[in-house]
Write a structure and sequence with these properties.
The chain is an all-alpha fold. 75% of the residues lie in helices and 1% in strands. It has one domain: Hydantoin permease, CATH 1.10.4160. The protein is globular and about 55 Å long.
Length: 460
């Protein structure tokens, strides 16, 4: 058994090297060109439609507001990895990894745009009258013949299974973090199980109401704390940005606890963090967005760019600057990199307040992530086997919270990345094959003055 597990781990390490980066980044680059660099040409419009109209009422059909759909998607992407994953990327890839994280996030915006457009285009109503959608629907209905059905079933099945170890991992993160402030695992597990169960069994409407309140609060709480740390080290802000751009293209020398990093390592770790942090191309975002009230798929897809900005360009960047301005990446060994943000907070605010703030932030991030991905799993089970089985899977996911916190499914973690690849590959195939349809919908939107009013030209 150990030999088989080792083989799986080696295969997973190879798969998540060049092959998956080519699939995700290469696919996103293809979509960027195919869609006419939409994330750059229409970035201002996207920010106006999202940040500028965050609480505006939207006309059209749907179950939840556009903002609720976006915060539900963000609840999944803004997780514990935004706090602990970024310093790991810096520890192994150097400060330059942050630059490549930004680059990949911008490129990946095209994939997120495409999958949300298709999610809305092919969404359906379930037996409860809720709008549901995602890769399982646009793969089945958009790609004709048996290939579409195979891809859709494969996506739904592997996502449904992948979420078990994923939830367990999130639960373990919350328990381990809470232990630093002496909160018993039983308390964390009980709170997570009760809150997640209450929200998920309440359906899409309750998910939307839950996420629109929790996500802004937890993000602001962490961002304010992070800004306090950064401003307390204001003398090093310029140096931090300088190191990000310098070491994106030149090797970073070893010093103190930092082992040094070649440019290839900066690209590898920054690319991985950019891909993992915002879930672009993974197919999860359109599951949340498919329930949004909107008058056109492209308008809702603008919220995908909003998510990239919030998750990667803001939250991950704040974590990076906390680490770089405090200089902890030069003092703490790479094997302990995940502790850097907590140590930075503790140095300024003390062990109690600083450690408590980070622990509370991670708990909220974990709560939001588990809640939404449990709902994602529920929708996959409903698509495959019906609503009764979907409720059974929710119970399974709640059980994963308990098992993850107390151990017992460690071996399943080793299969996590392979299962993740098994959902990304069919989704990226679908995005590329259906990119022409996405482009048509994009042109339809931007060429319609009622949907996209242009400024009137003044006669000379």
């Amino acid at each position: 058994m150990d030999g088989f597990v080792d083989l799986i781990v080696r295969f997973s390490d190879w798969l998540w090297g060049i092959p998956m980066l080519v699939i995700l980044v290469g696919g996103s680059l293809f979509l960027t060109f195919r869609l006419g660099f939409i994330q750059f040409r229409h970035f201002g419009f996207a920010m106006k439609e999202t940040f500028g109209k965050m609480f505006h009422k939207q006309e059209g059909e749907g179950t939840v507001t556009p903002f609720q759909a976006a915060t539900a998607a963000l609840a999944s992407t803004i997780g514990a990895s935004n706090i602990v994953g970024v310093p790991v990327a810096i520890a192994f890839g150097g400060p330059g990894a942050v630059f490549w994280m930004w680059v990949v996030a911008l490129i990946a915006s095209a994939a997120k745009f495409a999958e949300i457009v298709l999610g809305i285009r092919y969404r359906e109503q379930n037996e409860h009258g809720e709008y549901v959608g995602g890769p399982m629907y646009y793969l089945k209905n958009g790609i004709k013949g048996g290939l579409g059905k195979v891809l859709s079933v494969g996506f739904a099945f592997f996502l449904m299974i992948e979420l078990v170890p994923s939830i367990a991992t999130q639960s373990l993160s919350a328990v381990q973090t809470a232990s630093t402030v002496n909160i018993p695992p039983l308390v964390i597990v009980a709170v997570l199980v009760i809150l997640v169960g209450l929200v998920v069994f309440g359906g899409l409407t309750r998910i939307g109401k839950f996420s629109e309140k929790l996500v802004p609060f937890m993000a602001l709480l962490y961002l304010i704390g992070g800004l306090v740390i950064i401003l307390s080290n204001y003398a090093h802000i310029g140096e931090a940005f300088g190191s990000i751009f310098k070491y994106a293209f030149t090797p970073a020398a070893a010093t103190g606890g930092f082992g040094g990093a070649m440019v290839a390592q900066a690209i590898r770790w920054g690319t991985a963090r950019g891909v993992y942090s915002n879930e672009a191309g993974m197919g999860t975002a359109p599951i949340a967005h498919s329930g949004a009230i909107t008058d056109h798929p492209v308008r809702q897809a603008m919220w995908g760019m909003f998510e990239i900005v919030v998750d990667t360009l803001i939250v991950c960047s704040i974590t990076a600057l906390v680490v770089l301005t405090s200089g902890l990446h030069l003092e703490i060994p790479a094997t302990e990199a995940a502790s850097m943000p907590a140590i930075a907070f503790q140095q300024l605010l003390g062990d109690g307040l600083g450690g408590g703030l980070v622990s509370f932030s991670i708990f909220l991030f974990v709560l939001s992530t588990i809640t939404v991905i449990t709902w994602y799993g529920k929708t996959q089970a409903e698509f495959l086997f019906g609503s009764t089985f979907s409720n059974i899977m929710v119970v399974v996911y709640l059980g994963a919270i308990v098992l993850g916190a107390y151990g017992g499914i460690e071996t399943t973690y080793k299969f996590l990345d392979i299962l993740l690849a098994a959902i990304i590959i069919p989704n990226m195939i679908g995005l590329v094959m259906l990119s022409g349809e996405v482009n048509e919908l994009k042109n339809e939107f931007f060429n319609n003055p009622e949907l996209y009013p242009r400024k009137k030209q003044v006669r000379q």
